[in-house]
Amino acid sequence: MKKLSILLMAICFVFVAAGCSKANGKFEFLIPEDYVGWAYIIYDQSEYSEIKKEDGVTTFRIGEDGILKTSNKDAFYGTSTDRYFYVDEEGNKVKELDQIEDIHNKGAGKMDGGGGVKNGVEYTIEALPVVESFFVGDMSLMKNYKEVYPEDEMEQIK
Fold first, then answer.
1. CA distances to 10, 11, 18, 20, 145 from 130, in Å
2. Is the pTM of this model over 0.85?
């Protein structure tokens, strides 16, 4: 009876854990052919188009400068199947990148706002938008490229 109880608790745990992870489907990252360096997806940029899922795939088209700006308010969180491709000037996939050899240090974050008092005057700093980043290229090259939160490339949150 004790073994049955443990088994039932384990099964319940698996179902609860599975329910906590939101599935987002398939993501494709289209990167200009031969691009090496940090790629950034900057969210909450009202002047830019929204990234939408089409035919079950969410496509991220990284620009020649390694940056994609979108009006989506936040990054897509949850489980997904990610694929990375080099694309030619017409947007045709020319090579699938290996996620172990060619894509590194993927993450998403934001710089929180804050404030304080300077010279007796209170000030506040707005939170900056979420930025997703990853390095494209051989890991040995990463030391040659500085990862920076691209504040100068984004519209500030109002």
1. 36, 36, 26, 22, 21
2. no
Contact present, 41 and 60 (Cβ < 8 Å): yes
Sign of the Cα torsion 16, 17, 18, 19 reads: positive
Q: Which two tokens stand for residue 24?
A: 């987002």
Quote the DSSP letter at residue 63.
-
Q: How confident is the model at residue 110, as a pLDDT?
A: 76
Q: Model confidence over 88-111: pLDDT tens digits?
A: 999 999 999 999 999 999 988 876
Q: Which pLDDT score is estimated for 122? A: 66
State residue 141 phi and psi, 5-degree precision: -85, -15
Which residue is it, tokens 């000030």? 123
Residue pair 69/45 in contact (Cβ under 8 Å)? The answer is yes
Least Cα distance to 130 among 64, 40, 52, 55 occurs for 40
Contact assessment for residue 104 and residue 133, using Cβ atoms and an 8 Å cutoff = no
Q: Apex CA 52: angle with CA 55 and CA 39, to 5°? A: 110
